[in-house]
Design brief:
single chain; 133 residues; alpha+beta; Double Stranded RNA Binding Domain; 3 strands
Length: 133
């Protein structure tokens, strides 16, 4: 599939307070990001939308909204970029189409070579027997 374009206008960002350690700064500054992406209202192709809705991912709500919480970094901008990267990865995993595997048969010459090597190996092993005079 060709490269998918994610429009940032379709993504809603909300600044929230981050959890965890961070000293006094964590109580004062909203530097984590809640990213919301409505699958149905997006400009993605219909096949990708269906695959996204069918995914068993806890970040996708029952009404088809992807919610990603990004709080890995200390700055709001870096968390925003991190959330966008994770959303792009999720969409790319839904858009991935595995190559169709076509079963093949071994050629006659490869079959013959295999049997010949087995016979030769068996003869080598027969030579290892006890020596009788």
């Amino acid at each position: 599939m060709n490269a998918l374009v994610l429009k940032e206008s379709e993504v809603e960002f909300t600044a929230i307070r981050a959890q965890g350690a961070g000293g006094q700064n964590v109580n004062k500054v909203s530097n984590a990001v809640h990213l919301r992406f409505d699958i149905a209202a997006s400009s993605l192709p219909d096949e990708v939308k269906e695959k996204l809705r069918a995914m068993r991912d806890q970040r996708i709500s029952s009404d088809g909204v992807v919610v990603i919480k990004a709080q890995k970094h200390r700055s709001l901008e870096r968390n925003r970029e991190d959330g966008l990267v994770r959303l792009r990865e999720l969409i790319a995993s839904a858009a991935f189409v595995p190559a169709v595997r076509r079963p093949t048969k071994p050629s006659r010459s490869s079959q013959r070579k295999r049997i010949e090597s087995k016979i030769k190996r068996g003869q080598v092993k027969l030579q290892r027997g006890r020596v009788t005079e």
